[in-house]
Amino acid sequence: MPSDKDVFSLLFNYAVVLQNPKPRHDKMKQPKFTVNVYNVTDDKYIECPAFVFDAPGAELPGFVQSENTAANIEVWYKDWSTCALNLTGYGGKVIRLEFTTNDCVPSAHFCYAYLDINDTESYKPIGGNSYCNNQPNITLSGPVGYKEYHWFKTADMSTELGQERNLTVPSPPDGTGYTLKVIAYPDVGCNDVLYTVVNKIYSDFVFKIPDTVRICPGTNADLTASSVTMGSSSSLKFGYFINSSGADNEYLRDPKK
Asked: Of 60, 95, 134, 178, which is the most buried if we count CB atoms within 10 A?
């Protein structure tokens, strides 16, 4: 882990497929996908973050039951999703990530997973905390994968502002602080309290896109083409989503197709 980073996280993308036998096995015998973080320097596991995905996944968002099932066996899958492993406070230590898939104990029912580890980066758990001079509203975004979100102004923790992952409010004065309490799903991470300070950028920006992108038959729609954002400020960076708001983290995997 970088020794010069006060706040740090690793990001990984995963997809999971597992069977759910009927009747169900005991919990310890079910197929499962687990994620653990081992502190090699101190020779011990880190209690949080840790994840356990067990069929059928009804308690967690994003799990879908496949239509391709055999008698008395359900197949559940979770499409590509992103998780953040918050490793703040471990600067200078050697950390090992452990990803494990287990079939059921009798070995008749499977679990497998796909993984894509992002580059390491300095991690700010709350996004959207900078806004430009002509921006009427801001949208603060908490980290993905928690069961509950509770937003407050740091200076006034008596009034809750929202209970969604994203919080949209009128652009506040420069330097306004916000607090986010996050509640984890059972066996999927830990509860946490996060803080952020909103910063105003004293310059305007322009963001222009057409409401429709037209293509010829047999060709691909390239949303990254300069013609799509022509007239926008040159310093903008773009993200692409399947849904209209991006609130559910439904990323568009390839914006060039």
From this structure: 178
Residues of the chain with CATH 2.60.40.10: 130-201
- State yes or no: pLDDT of 5 exceeds 90: no
pLDDT band at 117 (very low <50, low <70, confident <90, very high): confident
User: What percent of the chain is modeled with pLDDT above 70?
Assistant: 84
Greater pLDDT, 25 or 236: 236
Calpha distance 27→31 (Å, rounded): 9
Taking 80 as the threshold, does the pLDDT of residue 125 lie above it? no
CATH of domain 130-201: 2.60.40.10
